[in-house]
Amino acid sequence: MAVLGLALGSCAIVPPPRDADLPLPANWSIPIADTSVSGALAPDWWERFGDPRLSRLVAQALQANTDVLTAQTRLQQSRALRNAADASLRPGLSMSGSLQHRQGEANSGNLVRPSFDANWIPDLFGGRRAALRAAEADAGASASTLEATRVTVAAEVATSYLQWCGVQVRLAIARDSLQRQRQLQQIVQWRAQAGLASSLEVEQSRTAVEQAEAQVPALWSSGAAWEHSLAVLIGMPPATWRAAWAGTSASAIPQPPVQLSAAVPADALRQRPDVAAAEAQLEAARQRVAQAEAGRRASLQAQGSIAWSAVNIASLGTAEAARALLGSMELPLFDAGSRLAQRDAQQAEYETSTIVYRARVLSALAEVEDALSSLAATRERLGALRLAAKAADRAATLAATRYGSGVVDFQSVLETQRTLLTVQDGVAMSETDWSLGHVQLYKALGGGWQPSSGDKQAPAS
Question: Which of 103, 344, 401, 443 is most deeply buried (CB count within 10 A of its CB)?
């Protein structure tokens, strides 16, 4: 029977894996030198911003975020399934027993019957080994998914925090502008009392003050929304978090160092845990094709048992044991195409996984390109806005001074004040975008993740 099984095994055919590799560019479309990108990215990239509060928030989120906790439990589940698949390759041993009380004229008394049963299903065509390799690949995919979740959560915390800091700075600018408008309104009222300003100028100054006041609650509401986002990310109810966060403010937007970190496209893909997860899922699908193919072949099962019968436990040592050894083989002859259909379904799943893997690679490359182009554009915009802000501040100061002396009209003062607020607010938003662009790049490069030896799958045999 074993010889027959081995002979049949030589006929097993496992579909070869389809090549899922893509030709990768040697460099990014945005020259690295133009964005000052070099070196290797550290896994704790958020430390580059030099903000202890951001570091604490990320540490809290990585410990308590619900997405991270969910990914951890799924990893535990996949590892348990891998262990179960590994155990299926080994023989099993079980014990059973019965105690029977007989009562009658001829044969009264007890009868004890313990037995041991062994069972082993040889893996003739590699179906169980393929199932084990698929389970190992699933475990590797879960491990990479956990790391990808951590990278995403860290990036989301940094994004929410930087957005909150940006709103705080914009809120300070709006309040400063409101203070300027109130001072200007006082000057207009003094001039009106002296007969040097018209009622039109008085109403215009009042309109400017009310418009400036309207900006404050809108920005405050935006800041509160980012606080709520931070609360959810660190696993706390927003109301509880806001109570603990009350009184916290930011006077500046954390800025990363000028020198960035990046890698060439091929290395960047190796540093992406989500790409590693897609690759592991592709390998798991390939192994399930092999498993389904093996299911179409013959199966062999060996069973053995040994049992004793005695009137009591003490006499078991002298009782004669009954032994049995059984071997059986099952060879499917006709199943109306059921096993073939199952194999074809797994093959289609493998083809789907190939497409998903390719899509993940293309998306990863696009994310890095987007981050690099965004940083390049933001750097130029921020430089121009900072120069414009200095000029607008000087213009607003000069206009206010000359209006007090009666040299320029009130409309010129209003225009310079509006321009100053717009440019200063633009600087704050661009500084926020500059920091957010770094977060986007760090995430696109895998957040400093490096595959460990435990994450790598052994080549399928």
Answer: 443
Beta-bridge mates of residue 102: 109
Q: What percent of the chain has pLDDT over 90?
A: 43
Token look-up 């109130």 returns 182
The amino acid occupying position 194 is: A
Mean pLDDT of all residues in 138-155: 93
In terms of DSSP bridges, do strands 321-330 and 92-102 run parallel, antiparallel, or are they unpaired?
unpaired
Q: Which residues pair with 325 in a beta bridge?
A: 304
Structure tokens at 212: 């400036």
List Cβ<8 Å contacts ≥24 apart for 30-37.
Answer: 30/369, 30/372, 30/373, 30/376, 32/262, 34/376, 35/260, 35/262, 35/372, 35/375, 35/376, 35/379, 36/258, 36/259, 36/260, 37/260, 37/261, 37/262, 37/372, 37/441
For the segment 329-369, what is each residue's pLDDT rounded down to a tens digit? 666 777 777 778 888 888 999 999 999 999 999 999 999 89
Query: Nearest-5° angle of CA 13, CA 14, CA 18?
Result: 135
